[in-house]
Structure formats: structure tokens, C-alpha cells
Amino acid sequence: MFLLCMMKQQLLSRVPGKKWYLRSFLDVEVVATAQDGEELYQKAVEYAPDIALVDIRMPGMDGLTAIEKLRPILENCQFIIFTAYEDFSYAKKALELGVMAYITKPVLKNEVIEKVSLAVKRLKERENREMGKEKGNVSEISEKEHSQEQPAA
Question: 10, 48, 79, 132: most buried by Cβ count inside 10 Å?
Fold first, then answer.
């Protein structure tokens, strides 16, 4: 199960039925919603979500600043930005911060579903790679231990 944190005021109020759509993802649980950028930052630190839906313009702290502060703490978090602004400087900064998706408003439900699905896919792929590395390390250790137990001929 992947954890998701999002802006309450802009996403739930402007995308009718949004909460239901996000819950329709079997691997996503909405663990926190926030009213402003400061609250989003605090809840993201508290819950360590795997996915964060963030607006660029939020009261208290803008989305890009929040992501910049959260990136070192939540290295693997998949950030998805929503914005009414098509300003290239915002998109450029988002790319520099490793944002996985940049959606301009008005937000379409299908686009949100697509981006969250992509985030889940990326997270699952990362988990599988990490599990493969762990299995490789365990088998290497087992082989070394086994070879040390064998008497030399």
C-alpha cells in the first residue's frame, strides 16, 4: 500500500469525486490532506507519503518551496504538481526538483488517475529492484558462508 498526501482545498473542491477516484486505486491510501503549504509540509514530514499531490500556489508556502524542503527528507516521493500557471520558470524549477508530473488546470480526473497510476508503477518498480538487490546480497552472503564451511581440498 502506497501512502498519498494532498492539498485538500484545491484538489477536493475543484475536482468533483476526486477522493473516490483516489481511493479506487487499491495500492493507494490517502493518509493526509492539508489546507495550506505549511500544513502540507508538516503532514508530509509526519506521514512520509510515497506520493504527494501539490499545488504550485498555496497559502503559507508555495508548492515548489514545499517540495524543495521535502525532497531531502522524502527522497523517493513521487511529487505531482497542479497549477493554473503555464509559466516556463515553474515547469523548469519543477523538473530541477524531480517532480514526476506537472498538470495544468483545469484538472481532468482521467489525467490525475493516469499520473497517480504512473507514480504507483514507478514505486512498485523501485521496490522490485530493491528486493532484487537484497536477494542478490543474501545469496552472495550465503555462497560465501557456504564456501567458508567447506574444507579445502
Answer: 79
Angstrom distance (rounded) from CA 139 to CA 153: 24
Residues 6+ apart with CB under 8 A from 33: 5, 6, 7, 8, 12, 43
Calpha distance 85→97 (Å, rounded): 17
Contact criterion met (CB below 8 Å) for 18 and 112 = yes
- Say which residues have a Cβ less than 8 Å from residue 15's Cβ, sequence separation at least 6: 107, 109, 112
Tell me which amino acid residue 18 is: K
Name the pTM for this structure: 0.78
The one-letter amino acid code at 53 reads L
Measure Cα distances from 32 to 3, 37, 52, 101, 137 in Å. Answer: 9, 13, 10, 20, 36
| Segment 96-148, tens digit of pLDDT | 999 999 998 888 878 888 999 999 999 999 999 888 877 666 555 555 555 55
Spatial distance between the Cα atoms of 53 and 116, rounded to a whole number of angstroms: 9
Q: Which uninterrupted H or E stretch holds 87?
A: none
